[in-house]
Specification:
8% strand, single chain, alpha+beta
């Protein structure tokens, strides 16, 4: 059964590798504009990850997502394993009565069931993805050592059939209990070292110990190889999925976020602002007379101008909860968390001045001979009675006010606390 599982995993990995080769050729051009996060994903895909670890930020995201994706199955597995332990104890009473008499059922149940029960409870914690592997790894290491000890007690009766349970437990550690490869490998190796030391303490003959150890090592190698290939395939698939998602949420020309990501982020920040009672600001900037710029200098020059303006906006989205996005055409948006009206107006003025400082000639402008932007600004503390559309609507009205006032300026609109989205 185990060789068949390994063969299936190897075939799956080969299939994923073929898919990745195709994927690389289809997405290389798009990734160049996908930003630092996408570049990090691409770098990992190209250089590999033999140590089964990503860069810290990616590793944390991967672990959290993988844990929660498999959480329902993990809970089922833990319950099934607890039931299986109870069933084995009952079978022992019939099949191996002398073993049941020598090692009480309470002791055999006590080796694994409390550990599995602790793991089950941990899956319901608020930070389950953090605590589960950190608690279960040492507990399962102790569990494997306990099973090894019981197996040696059975050997002394003599009863060799109990030894196979250590192999079954090893399989569970690698494939059923939701531990990453490196953690499962550590628990496995420690249990093997413990088994050798305990076997010598029990006075097991070297030849017999070598036979048992050979079976345990063979099972461990097969499990380790299968678990390595399986986690490698999962990590590869996760990186590809993240890269595709990142590309889908970025503007292909400027490399900053697109409207779709902005809408998602603004909704999340709006809810966060409600909980924290912190203001959220939105700035909408529009390049003045951009159609005339394209008509005069050509669309290629227009694209370069959009990139330059986007790079200016990107300087103001460096905080974790802030975001800069291309809102559409020649329009850009900046979302700022915990930013009141006066601070938002200051940022808007800085954006306007820095775009002007690019000193990009604009002979077709009705405002100045250089490229400029008009900025509309709105800031408010989110309320459960309204949605984030109120803030976008207000920033849009402020933008029109800036344009009506002559362009190349920033305007702040006071938002009505009782306003609703039209």
């Amino acid at each position: 059964m185990i060789p068949e599982v390994v063969d299936s995993l190897t075939q799956a990995l080969a299939l994923l590798n073929d898919h990745w080769q195709y994927f690389r050729h289809q997405t290389t051009a798009a990734v160049s504009a996908a930003g630092d996060y996408a570049e990090s994903l691409q770098r990992h895909l190209e250089r590999g990850f033999r140590s089964m670890r990503f860069d810290p930020s990616l590793e944390a995201a991967y672990r959290d997502e993988q844990f929660h994706d498999s959480l329902a199955f993990l809970r089922i597995n833990l319950v099934m394993l607890m039931a299986l332990v109870f069933a084995i104890v009952q079978v022992d009473r019939v099949v191996i009565p002398e073993f049941s008499e020598a090692v009480p059922g309470v002791a055999r149940v006590g080796v694994m069931v409390p550990i599995l029960a602790v793991g089950f409870v941990l899956t319901f914690g608020r930070r389950a993805s953090f605590w589960y592997p950190r608690v279960m790894t040492p507990l399962m290491t102790a569990g494997l050592m306990g099973i090894a000890w019981i197996g040696l007690l059975a050997w002394a009766l003599p009863e060799d059939r109990v030894f196979v349970r250590l192999i079954i437990a090893t399989i569970a550690v690698y494939f059923i209990l939701g531990l990453r490869f490196r953690l499962a490998l550590a628990a496995n190796l420690i249990s093997i070292v413990f088994y050798v030391g305990a076997a010598r303490w029990f006075g097991m003959p070297t030849v017999v110990m070598a036979q048992f150890l050979a079976m345990l090592l063979l099972a461990s190698v097969i499990c380790a190889a299968g678990a390595y290939n399986l986690e490698h395939a999962r990590r590869m698939a996760w990186l590809e999925g993240q890269l595709l998602s990142e590309i889908a949420l970025r503007d292909g020309l400027t490399g900053i976020s697109n409207r779709r990501r902005l809408d998602q982020h603004l909704q999340q920040i709006w809810q966060h602002g409600q909980r924290e009672r912190k203001p959220v600001a939105v700035l909408l900037a529009d390049i003045d007379c951009f159609k005339a710029y394209n008509d005069h200098y050509g669309h290629q020059a227009g694209d370069e101008a959009l990139k330059a303006v986007a790079s200016v906006h990107a300087r103001f989205g460096q905080r974790a909860l802030d975001m800069v996005a291309r809102f559409g055409g020649e329009e850009f948006a900046v979302v700022l968390f915990d930013t009141g009206p006066s601070e938002a107006l200051r940022v808007g003025e800085e954006i306007r001045q820095q775009v002007r400082a690019l000193n990009l000639a604009h002979a077709g402008s009705a405002v100045t001979p250089v490229l400029t932007v008009s900025v509309g600004i709105a800031s408010m503390v989110p309320s459960a009675k309204r949605d984030c559309g109120v803030l976008l609507q207000a920033a849009d009205q402020a933008l029109y006010s800036a344009k009506d006032a002559g362009r190349d300026r920033a305007r702040l609109l006071d938002v009505d606390p009782d306003a609703t989205t039209r």
